[in-house]
Amino acid sequence: MPELKVSDKAPDFTAETTEGKINLRDYRGKNVVLYFYVRDQTPGCMMQSCSLRDGIERIKGLDAEVLGVSVDDLQSHQKFKAVYNLNFPLVADTDFSISKAYDAFNEERQMSKRITFVIDKNGIICHIFPKVDVRAHADEVVTALKSMK
Length: 149
Hints:
Blueprint: E1 14-17, E2 20-23, E3 31-36, H1 43-54, H2 56-60, E4 64-70, H3 74-83, E5 90-92, H4 97-101, E6 105-106, E7 111-112, E8 115-119, E9 125-129, H5 137-147
Parallel strand pairs: 3-4, 4-5
Antiparallel strand pairs: 1-2, 3-8, 6-7, 8-9
């Protein structure tokens, strides 16, 4: 499968999350920050997730929702969400299908790669962050969202 690029249509998916079952299609009309992370309870992923948590009001103020994706199961996600008071859904990609669709899967390690996609209100990828500053990820995302206006 070819690597996704800016201007591509974001692959749709249906999945279980910490907030119940979702479909990416349900977010049409809003921008979506879809971030893939390696594992729950790991230092870099904690910093990245907490950066987005702390920036959620600025992100929502730009008409965007945040969805976190890793290959961990719902039980692990629920614990991670509770420990760090995360204020957005975490997607359980236990069959790796979402990570693979977004070319965000590390076959060798059997886990997601750290990469973020900013998807516009029509389901088109507008920004891709292949390298993420875990401490300032919310700032990166806010800058990308502002550039879309």
